[in-house]
TrEMBL record:
Keywords on record: Pyridoxal phosphate
Family: Belongs to the trans-sulfuration enzymes family.
SUPFAM superfamilies from the UniProt entry: PLP-dependent transferases (SSF53383)
Name under which the protein is recorded: Trans-sulfuration enzyme family protein
Cofactor(s) it depends on: pyridoxal 5'-phosphate
UniProt entry tagged with the keyword NAD: no
Gene3D superfamilies cross-referenced by the UniProt entry: Aspartate Aminotransferase, domain 1 (3.90.1150.10), Type I PLP-dependent aspartate aminotransferase-like (Major domain) (3.40.640.10)
Pfam families in the cross-refs: Cys_Met_Meta_PP
Tagged with keyword Signal: no
Organism annotation: Prauserella salsuginis
Entry-linked InterPro entries: Cys/Met-Metab_PyrdxlP-dep_enz, Cys_met_metab_PP, PyrdxlP-dep_Trfase, PyrdxlP-dep_Trfase_major, PyrdxlP-dep_Trfase_small
Length: 391
């Protein structure tokens, strides 16, 4: 089955009792136990007993996502952060060393650089993940994990997943990859050698800005460890309704991604040719330093995130955001509607950013599914109000 067909049919479990052709939402905390529960297969983490551990909507979604990423198994969680935490919590032990991209989503950054070192005693090195020599230079005998995003959030640098997998495996470590910006069919990190791929399902895979979820996908053995270790006992199971919503949203993922990518490319090109803009970072631009790496790894487009910087004062940039009429100022990404966020980070977090993102702040545009023409008109009008007409 091709990915497009799988997106429509994968993971769906028609209802035996009613004949409903879509899996109904099972809002039940428990499933019927046999009179003799000792006969249950205790080594099956997906056993239908209790919804904190498993549920039919969760199982269908796991099935769908595992196949979409060409992994053996998937563990779905209540949020992307829960999936990331579940994976790190399972893989790492006190004293282990982790190498992490110096640009990753803020929650991941804090989890890996602050919370896990304090609570679990892991040691962490932040590196420019696009500099493979820098990655090799910080490997230690205790290195257990390299973690990166394919396209990094919020400065969209592009990691070379196959090269990182070789470095990790050469050191006896694992490579985990957050592919939230690049869901299938854009990229399948497991095909490039990653050991585990994670997504915030909240973003493109659900796609409608109305449900949160997360997933970790990889070999069955590792995924089962994550389920037993970090899902069953730590909690974080997805609600059946959210699993159902994400399943429904994911039906149109390939089509939506195509539109996200086309719109983002058009907007990035518009901004890059606009003298009012200081810097546009989008791997789809021929002049972007990450274009070549993205072109080798991605199929069908360069994602929906365009980050840019505008000169002028802080107040000018606030005014620009305020003057947008169609584009909404809000965090998150991968929604049907276009979202924009004017983001400022502390120096230690912005150290790896391209300049002037550190100085001017970074404006992250999460391009949606509207007409590119309308989005460009909205950006142009707001820029004109603050900075004067495009010359
Ligand atoms: C790349 C990336 N990974 C993980 C997350 C966390 O996902 P969630 O908000 O579903 O917990 C985000 C959230 O923005 C993200 O952008």
């Amino acid at each position: 089955m091709t990915g497009d067909t799988w997106a429509v049919h994968g993971g769906n479990r028609p209802d035996e009792t009613t004949g409903a052709i879509r899996t109904p939402i099972a809002m039940a905390n428990s499933y019927r136990l046999p009179a003799d529960p000792t006969a249950l297969a205790e080594d099956d983490p997906d056993l239908l007993v209790y919804t904190r551990e498993s549920g039919v909507n969760q199982l269908g979604l796991q099935d769908k996502l595992a196949h979409a990423e060409r992994g053996e198994a998937a563990a779905v969680f209540t949020t992307g952060m829960a999936a990331l935490h579940g994976a790190f919590f399972t893989i790492l032990a006190p004293g282990d060393h982790v190498i992490v991209s110096d640009i990753v989503y803020m929650g991941t950054f804090d989890l890996l650089t602050s919370l896990l070192p304090k609570k679990m005693g892991v040691q962490v090195d932040l590196v420019d993940i696009t500099d493979l020599d820098a990655v090799r230079a910080v490997i230690r005998p205790s290195t257990k994990l390299i973690h990166t995003e394919v396209i990094c959030n919020p400065d969209p640098k592009v990691a070379d997943v196959a090269a990182l997998a070789r470095i990790a495996h050469g050191a006896g470590a694992l490579l985990t990859v957050d592919s939230t910006f690049t869901p299938p069919p854009l990229m399948r990190p497991l095909d490039h050698g990653a050991d585990l791929v994670m997504h915030s399902l909240t973003k493109y895979i659900n796609g409608h800005g109305d449900a949160m979820g997360g997933v970790a996908i990889g070999d069955r053995d590792l995924v089962d460890q994550i389920k037993f270790g970090a899902l069953h006992h730590v909690g974080g199971a997805i609600a059946p309704f959210n699993a159902w919503l994400i399943m429904r949203g994911s039906l149109t993922l390939p089509l939506r991604l195509q539109r996200h990518c086309e719109n983002a490319q058009a907007i990035a090109e518009f901004l890059a040719s606009d003298p009012r803009i200081d810097l546009v970072a989008y791997p789809g631009l021929a002049g972007d330093p990450h274009h070549a790496s993205a072109s080798v790894q991605l199929t069908g487009g360069y994602g929906g995130i365009v980050s840019f910087a505008i000169a002028g004062s802080h107040q000018d940039r606030v005014q620009f955001i305020d003057d947008l009429r169609l584009i909404t100022s809000a965090v998150s990404l991968g929604h049907d509607e276009t979202l924009i966020a004017y983001e400022h980070y502390p120096p230690e977090r912005a150290a790896g950013f391209r300049e002037p993102f550190g100085d001017h702040g970074l404006i992250r545009l999460a391009v949606g599914l509207e007409s590119a023409k309308d989005l460009i008109a909205d950006l142009d009008a707001a820029l004109t109000t603050v900075y004067g007409p495009r010359t």
